[in-house]
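Recap from last week: sequence in, structure out.
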Amino acid sequence: QVQLVESGGGLVHTGGSLRLSCGASGRTFSRYTMGWFRQAPGKEREFVSAINWNGLNTYYADSVKGRFTISRDYTNDTVYLQMSSLEPEDTAIYYCAVVNWGSWSPAGSWGQGTQVTVSS
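Predicted structure tokens:
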């Protein structure tokens, strides 16, 4: 089991940027596709982005394509989500997780999440 801890959320204005981090521990981090999900108030949790085990392939939901960039650092077992041109619709709790590549479904336990709030 991979244990995950998200950080980096905060309050920004429309058009601003944030970088989220997800520290992983436990089973071998480099073997897994990792990704980000988010859950806005009153809505279901949705897929945002994924990066495959070797970092060579990434995938984004249409709603964030061109604005968000996912990356991973194997030296410290961390996954990042660089978010730019933020919009109020991006307001949500962001979670990282192990992801099933292709189905974009979560494949393990969740961290506590990190709150992102974008003010208009």
